[in-house]
Amino acid sequence: EIVLTQSPGTLSLSPGERATLSCRASQSVGKNNLAWYQQKPGQIPRLLIFGASIRATGIPDRFSGSGSGTDFTLTISRLEAEDFAVFYCQQYGSSPLTFGGGTKVEIK
Amino acid sequence: EVQLVQSGPEVKNPGESLKISCKGSGYSFTNYWIGWVRQMPGKGLEWMGIIYPDDSDTRYSPSFQGQVTISADKSISTAYIQWSSLKASDTAMYYCVRHRLSSSWFDYWGQGTLVTVSS
User: Fold this and answer.
1) What gap in Å lies between CA B34 and CA B47, rounded to an integer?
2) With helix as H, strand as E and coil as C, how does B9-61 read?
3) What tens digit of pLDDT does each residue of A35-81 get?
4) Which residues of chain A are within 8 Å of residue B94 when distances are taken between CB atoms?
5) Which stretches does DSSP call E strand in chain A?
6) Exposed e or buried b per residue across A47-80, where buried means at least 16 C-beta atoms within 10 angstroms of its C-beta
7) Which residue among A19, A40, A47, B103 is least packed, with the fewest CB closer than 10 Å?
């Protein structure tokens, strides 16, 4: 089973700042078999990125994904008030599909 | 519009059985996999398993194999997950999700079904 480790656990930032979230896999997930989701309190997760760098429909371009193999990054270029949430990475390079433990982006 | 609509919240005693549902609409139900994801209170997301409704090909995460049963009735575009004997540790929110492939991202999520197991 591929273990995904997200860091940091919590990121305290102000609106307008840049957020950089990391997701590291215990073994290669393949070139780009990684997705990112956002979950706000009391809401269902929302797909942000798939294929490591492809934004899902309706996702603003301030969200971007990069990386391959074992190291991936989600970047939010300028945080807006509605972006504060928990973010999860998910690999689908091999079964079982697995999620990272999440990074909480909170308002500083 | 693609929708996955799940059955309502459940409160059960330990040892009871339970089956919750997920009805798909707005797309060809038999052409996509349906998966189940668990989220325990205050915790992260865990993939439990998937089913391909067209032929009921089913796959489980090793962590959940033997603990739950996933099924589907393509005639009514509905997938299910069931427990034969609930434990307190099954208390969680359960989401159904749509997969394009058996190994892929989840593009649509159900609204979640909260299962509470308590004596």
Assistant:
1) 11
2) CEEECCCCCEEEEEEEECCCHHHCEEEEEEECCCCCEEEEEEEECCCCEEEEC
3) 999 999 999 999 999 999 999 999 999 999 999 999 999 999 999 99
4) none
5) 4-7, 10-13, 19-25, 34-39, 46-50, 54-55, 63-68, 71-76, 85-91, 98-99, 103-107
6) bbbbbbbebbeebeeebbbebebbebbbebeebe
7) A40
Secondary element (H or E) of residue B106? strand B106-109
Residues 6+ apart with CB under 8 A from B10: B18, B20, B113, B114, B115, B116
pLDDT over 90 at A30, yes or no: no
Determine the residue among A6, A38, A44 to mutate to test chain B binding: the one whose Cβ has the most chain B Cβ atoms within 10 Å: A44
Is the pLDDT score of B89 beyond 90? yes
Provide, as residue numbers in chain A, all residues whose Cβ is less than 8 Å from the Cβ of B111.
Answer: 44
Dist. CA B25–CA B101, nearest whole Å: 18
Residue B18: phi and psi, rounded to 5, are: -155, 145
**Both structure tokens of B74:** 């393509």
